[in-house]
Amino acid sequence: MSTDPKTLAQELTGAYAHKAIVAAPSSRDGGIDLDTAYAVEAEIARAKRAAGQQTVGWKVGYANKAVWRALKLDTLVWAHVYDDTVRYADWNDATLSIAAMMAPKIEPEIVFKLASVPASNDAAAVLAATEWYALGFEIIDCVFPEWKFQPVDFVAARGLHAALVIGEPVYVEPEDIAQLATDMAAFTVRLLKNNEMVEEGAAKNALKSPALCVGELGEALKRRGGETLQAGDIISTGTLTTSLPISAGDTWIASLSGIPPSSLTLRVT
Hints:
Layout: H1 5-18, H2 34-50, E1 55-61, H3 68-71, E2 77-82, E3 86-88, E4 93-96, E5 105-114, H4 123-128, E6 130-140, H5 151-156, E7 161-166, E8 170-171, H6 177-183, E9 188-193, E10 196-202, H7 210-224, E11 234-236, E12 244-245, E13 251-257, E14 263-268
Parallel strand pairs: 1-11, 3-7, 4-14
Antiparallel strand pairs: 1-2, 5-6, 5-11, 5-12, 6-7, 6-8, 9-10, 9-13, 13-14
Helix pairs in contact: 1-2
């Protein structure tokens, strides 16, 4: 099995297209390193752009710093988000088909849209550069056996990104930034499946604040070289709970406490 970035990009893209299980790159002879994984992800982005799709921003993974040491990470990881995978809710209510997916899971996240490039990586600077934020659902899907993978596999497989459902935007006003920077580090979320509460999460699970996730992403992109944050980018800042399996017929609700908006509903078909 080849670990050439272009070949591996084609293999993983084909696996998603045909709903086929493939060995995780980290499990193959010699494995792959993070540089190669990002090269694979970049090849996938190039191929998608060549096919007419547009990259519209980023998603992050491993935004809980508590796991970095065990996984030998020194920062979060990331992958592109595409125009054909983003869905906007209508009044915080959305429907999404998972027919093309293999074994999707749901993650409640805070999504940012940048108005400009943050001047620094602190929460206030990020919020000053933010046009709006929203509650979202990142839908991930995995072509690796039993959902077992390492960070390098996550990156190479485009961050497992399958869809991003974005709720109604909350526009950031300059006079609100100081308080919002505080609130963005203290909110909680409740996740309900078919009107039963299944998990609770909090801002602390996303680098202690989703705004800090954006700042960390910006710095990490600059350190790696290549693309950087741009005005207009949509950024999904990491899951606030564990990732949970979803099935057609489910109705999922994420409910926020501490920051608006109040909730987002997703009906799965």
